[in-house]
Amino acid sequence: MLTLYGTKGSGSAAIEAALAVAGVAYTTVDAASWKTPPDSGLDALRRVNPLAQIPTLVDDDGLVLSESAAILINLGLVHPESGLLATEPKRRAQQIRGLVYIAANCYAGIGILDFPDRWYPDPDDAVKEKMQQRGKARLHELWDLFADQFPAAPWLSGDRLGALDLLAATVSKWSGARQHLVASRPAFSALLARIESGPRVAAVWARHWPRA
Ligand SMILES: N[C@@H](CCC(=O)N[C@@H](CS)C(=O)NCC(=O)O)C(=O)O
User: Fold this and answer.
1) Cα separation of 150 and 107, whole Å?
2) Cβ atoms of residues 54 and 11 within 8 Å
3) For residue 158, what is the DSSP state?
4) How many helices, marked H, and strands, marked E, lie in the chain?
5) Is 172 in the pocket of ligand 1 (CB under 6 A)?
6) Which one of 70, 126, 175, 194 has the fewest CB atoms closer than 10 angstroms to its CB?
7) pTM for the full model?
8) pLDDT given for residue 212 in this prediction
9) Which long-range contacts (CB under 8 A, 24 or more apart) does 128-135 make?
10) Atom of ligand 1 nearest to the CA of 174
11) Which tens digit of pLDDT belongs to each residue from 164-174?
């Protein structure tokens, strides 16, 4: 049985959705660096991933997989029938490129916006505000460039919904990206809505982002 460390509204949603698509059973540990024990499995998370980042997935043998793109690529390779990754090499290469693009550019940028003092010592309010403003604008540019380079046919992953769709729909939830994309890239915005409205993804989303 796999153990997934994560919490509501976080990147663990992408992995839960991928596990649902692949039909793989798992248990969850509620943990996040911003949630302190005893209400969180933070200590256990830190033992398996010293960065204390989620999602982190651990298998029965204690093998630790962190980094969303790595987790999704591995699930796609281990479960080829799931369609998480294409079997056709050139299409799969573009999917891996897209997954790493999101992780390396968008997700990493959000990490800086969320924790600016890891990158700038004792930022005062003016610095924080400028970093947020410019950082968000940069993040939105990165999503525009993603939308331009990764066309949907009809999914980002090709003829089946796959890992690239799930990571895009998750990471675009944050830092105002969705609101930006409605105006800047309406077709991509509509695709994100289509990804999250399918039954398997919608069930995971309802746990992570319940409607008020
Ligand atoms: N490089 C990681 C980033 C994961 C990440 O930043 N996750 C956030 C939650 S969505 C986190 O755990 N942040 C807490 C921290 O960095 O202290 C990935 O691609 O999965």
Assistant:
1) 17
2) yes
3) B
4) 10, 4
5) no
6) 126
7) 0.97
8) 64
9) 135/109, 135/175
10) 10
11) 999 999 999 99
